[in-house]
Amino acid sequence: MLSFENFKQVWGKQFPETNFRNNHFLIAVSGGIDSIVLAYLMHQIGSKCTIAHVNFQLRGSESERDENFVRSFASRLDIPLFVHKSDTAQYAQDNKMGIQEAAREIRYTWFDTLMKEITVTTGKPTFLLTAHHADDQVETVLMHLFRGTGLHGLTGIPARRNDSMAIIRPLLSFTKEQLATFAQANNIQNIEDSSNSKNDYTRNLIRNKLIPEIEAVYPNVTQNIITTVERLKESEEIVNTTVAAFWKKGLRTSKGILSIPIKNWEKVITNKTYTWGLIKNYGFKATQIEEVVKLLQASDGAYIETSSHRFIKWKAQIQIVANDASTEHIIINREDINVQGKWENLHFEIKQITEVVINPSPKYAYLDADLVQWPLLLRTWQSSDYFYPLGFRKKKKLNHFLGGLKLSPTLKARITLLIMGDKILWVTGKRIDDRFKVTNSTKLVLVITYIDKP
Question: pLDDT at position 85, please?
Answer without folding.
Answer: 96
